[in-house]
Amino acid sequence: MMMAKDESAVSPVVGVMLMLVVTVIIAAVVSAFAGGMAETQSKTPQVTLNAKYAQSEGLTLYHEGGDTLGIGEFKLLLHPSSNYGSIEEQTYVDEIDPFLIENGQGEMWYRDSGGRQISRFGPGDIAYISVENCSTEKLTPDLGYKPSPRAPYINYGINNSKYIGSSFFLEMVTLDGKMIAKVEVPVRA
């Protein structure tokens, strides 16, 4: 006599087990991917920046709060605002040479030999660019030019008295261009 086996319950159990295994594998892959992304992506630092500029005093930057930044880990960009002359003058963006910047105690951020003298710019710190270093030729060379050897130098820089009352933007960005801070700075005499 042959006995019939009833295997109808095995198939649903195997199916449920396979679905559970696939779900666990997918959850592990997603978890590993998300965990790896969290470690490799760094958050962009944030700074509350204030600045004052007077043609007779120079440019002073105030770190009023936020993250402490290592000198050399960010760039300062200067570009005219919409109230600064013609559209051509408004389209320039110049990176400020960090060799022109000193701290509040008169120490330059960088030595002439190239090494950093100041290591960080943090809350409460002051950065200063002297009147001499605010000249167009040094601070914003793209805002001035000499069309020919005999022509006069054309100065669209912030030290030109015709721009008193207008303003420019000072942006602090990471080395890969992510915005850290931006401030509009009026040009005073």
UniProtKB/TrEMBL annotation:
Pfam families: Pilin_N. The chain crosses the membrane at residues 12-34. It comes from the Archaea. This is Type IV pilin. Keywords: Membrane, Transmembrane, Transmembrane helix. Residues 8-81 form the Archaeal Type IV pilin N-terminal domain. NCBIfam families: arch_flag_Nterm.
